[in-house]
Amino acid sequence: LDGLADVLEGVTCPYKEEQLRSAMNEIQQRINRQHQQEANAQAAASEQFLKQNAQRPEVQVTDSGLQYEVLNEGGGAKPAATSRVRVHYHGTLVDGTVFDSSVERSEPLEFALNGVIKGWTKGLQLMTEGSKYRFTIPQDLAYGASGAGAVIGPYSTLVFEVELLAVL
């Protein structure tokens, strides 16, 4: 705030523009390094979780790396990659942090399978109406290096319990 007050009072900045630019570049580089270190740590933690989870006998692993458990097998229609579906879901990070849940909102979600993350597109095609699965979705089938929102960081593995209510 002192700098703003100085500008309003007409006080000249004691630093040259190049010094300020250099300082800002250094700060930005430090921030970028910190973000990269955090992303690398997240990627390593996600890989470790996936390796451990895949060892559980009830977990199936697809060729794409998607992991799933059948919690309840239904018997209805099976969606295609372009189908519209209605689901209930509960999404968490591997540490259990909830980032989204239609179950908690008591409001199912309807969407086209080709309009969501790859892990959902691939996973929901394994299900039939009435089924409930737990998907463990590797970062490359989720949001990858960019993450999503404030909670899902870069390289995050996601865990979803999904109930396929209807193929529309």
Notes on the structure:
- The model has no long low-confidence stretch (mean pLDDT 95).
- The protein is built from four helices and seven strands.
- Strands 1, 2, 3, 4, 5, 6 and 7 form a seven-stranded antiparallel beta sheet that branches.
- The protein is α+β, with helices and mostly antiparallel strands.
- A hairpin with a 5-residue loop joins strand 1 and strand 2.
- The radius of gyration is 23 Å and the shape is elongated.
- The protein has one domain: Chitinase A, domain 3 (Roll).
- The longest helix is centred in the first third of the chain and has 38 residues.
- Helices cover 33% and strands 25% of the residues.
Question: Which structural traits does this protein have?
Answer:
elongated; 168 residues; single chain; alpha+beta; Chitinase A, domain 3; 7 strands; seven-stranded antiparallel β-sheet
Distance between the termini: 57 Å
Overall 3D shape: elongated
Largest sheet: 7 strands, antiparallel
Written as H for each helix and E for each strand, in order along the chain, the element string is HHEEEEHEHEE
Which CATH architecture?
Answer: Roll
What is the CA-based Rg, rounded?
23 Å
Total DSSP E strands: 7
- What is the share of helical residues? 25-40%
Number of H- or I-type helical stretches = 4
| CATH T-level fold name | Chitinase A, domain 3
Q: Structural class, from helix and strand content?
A: alpha+beta
Global mean pLDDT: 95
Q: Strand portion, in percent?
A: 25-35%
Number of domains as seen in the coordinates: 1
Low-pLDDT stretches are none
Per CATH, the class reads Alpha Beta
